[in-house]
Amino acid sequence: MPVPVPVPQQRGVPAAETPHGADLTVLVIEDDPAGSITGPELSAAAGTRVRIRTARNLTEAGRLLTDDVDCILLDLALPVPATNATATATATTTAPAAPDHRPEPAPGRADELAVLTHVLRIAPLHAVLVLTAQDDTELAAEAVRVGAQDYLFRGELDARVLSRAIRYAVERKRADLAQHQLTESGLRAQENARLERGLLPTPLLEGSDLSFAARYRPGRSRALLGGDFYDTVRTPDGTVHAMIGDVCGHGPDEAALGVELRIAWRALTLAGLCGDQLLSTLQQVLEHERQSEEIFATLCTVDIAPDGRRAGLCLAGHPAPLLARHGRPARLLPYEDGGPALGLLPRARWPRRQVELGAEWSLMMYTDGLIEGRVGAGSSQRLGQDGMVAMVNSRLEQGLAGEELLEAAVAEVRERHGGELTDDVAVLLLGRDPERIRRRGRSASRPGPVSTASPATAPAAASVQRPPLYGP
């Protein structure tokens, strides 16, 4: 059906100097090839170059529809072929298809809007402007509700109105696509956050007398998970196993590898492996899962005896833990017998060193992100292990312990650094307090209301929540 457009006076405005900027390409789908719409007419009204492509049916429209088309001008009176699947198959646009979330036409309007729904299906990323009869405003409004950007009446067209409507339709479509992408990005971010939170460890310490606290902060911006990883489990014989590690790098691949190593460590530990045998198996996991041979991981493992007074220590290129006994300053555990980081030497060995803990103690395991922060804004000096030991002893003298100790330590490191730390930080604190154990024993021996959980295990279960996260 022809679309009458009066011819206004031509304006000699170069496209590069037009206020609207870029050229426009319009695909007109109407059944009269002699329609009066021409490029020069719209170019003069729009103030920029407008190229016109004309299709007499949907099959031709499918062939002419390419990525450089800015707007489709569609006559709703165009007849729909009995088999319009051909047009869909011949569409040549290479842009990725957007998810089809458009509403269905109202009852009784599906046939009248069949040509529009077909065009929206083959051109989900293009602006669509529909033409309809002046006496059918309800159909025009329904077309916009279904997915068109705007409508025009055939009897009221002139070049200026049409050029303005095309511009509006193009910009509205761009805004719709941007909003859709923003919504999709937000949903993906929420899903990723839920996934990353689910990948953080939940320590298995039910039945243990030891206290547990942890802090975790990824170095990646807006991430919840980094290349640092840790875990703690209690095996059926009463031994508490703790581990902390660091995959070199800070990207999502390193974070994924850290999760794989943590899960493998937990499975191997629960299967009864320990020390050199466990670390050798973990190295095999690392070698199979890493993206390149340059990737390695440091690791520190501790297995604490059921009585809580001694432990076995294995170091794989990782900083030694910090031990604080009751009434004594904190000190680093020996690290001379440690082995190399996982992934460096094919047949490496990791000796297990026996450590006496005593009756009352706190053991802090950490990654290098805690000790590599600067000691002042703009300073090249790093905190280091000696600085960390002095900092922790200062906090211990203030009477801090457990969650409060970790909170204060991490906050002080960030403050000294002068802002956010660039590396991942993980800190794990295990402790044994005989007085706390006695109090809990007396509480468990008192008669109380019947509970489905054992009184002796309830406090331990309450203390093994996931650690709070430090956002960037």
- Distance between the amino and carboxyl termini: 60 Å
User: Which segments are poorly predicted (pLDDT under 50) over 5 or more consecutive residues?
Assistant: 1-20, 84-99, 450-465
Structural class: alpha/beta
Mass-distribution shape: elongated
Q: What is the string of helix and strand elements?
A: EHEHEHHEHEHEEEHHEEEEEEHHEHH
- The percent range for strand residues is 15-25%
Largest beta-sheet characterization: 5 strands, parallel
Question: Using DSSP, what is the number of strands?
Answer: 15
**Integer-rounded radius of gyration:** 34 Å
Mean pLDDT value: 80
Task: Describe what this molecule looks like in 3D.
With 472 residues, the chain is an alpha/beta fold. The chain is 34% helix and 19% strand. It is built from twelve helices and 15 strands. A five-stranded parallel β-sheet has the order 2-1-3-4-5. A five-stranded antiparallel β-sheet has the order 6-15-14-11-12. The chain has a five-stranded antiparallel β-sheet with strand order 7-8-9-10-13, with helices on one face. Strand 11 (322-325) and strand 12 (331-332) form a beta hairpin. The protein starts with 23 loop residues before the first strand and ends in a 10-residue tail after the last helix.
Features:
alpha/beta, five-stranded parallel sheet, five-stranded antiparallel sheet, disordered N terminus, 472 residues
Topology of helices and strands:
Elements: E1 24-29, H1 39-46, E2 50-55, H2 58-64, E3 71-75, H3 85-89, H4 114-122, E4 127-132, H5 137-146, E5 150-153, H6 159-199, E6 211-217, E7 228-234, E8 240-247, H7 252-270, H8 275-289, E9 297-304, E10 310-316, E11 322-325, E12 331-332, E13 353-356, E14 361-366, H9 384-397, H10 402-417, E15 425-432, H11 434-445, H12 458-462
Parallel strand pairs: 1-2, 1-3, 3-4, 4-5
Antiparallel strand pairs: 6-15, 7-8, 8-9, 9-10, 10-13, 11-12, 11-14, 14-15
Helix pairs in contact: 1-6, 7-8, 9-10
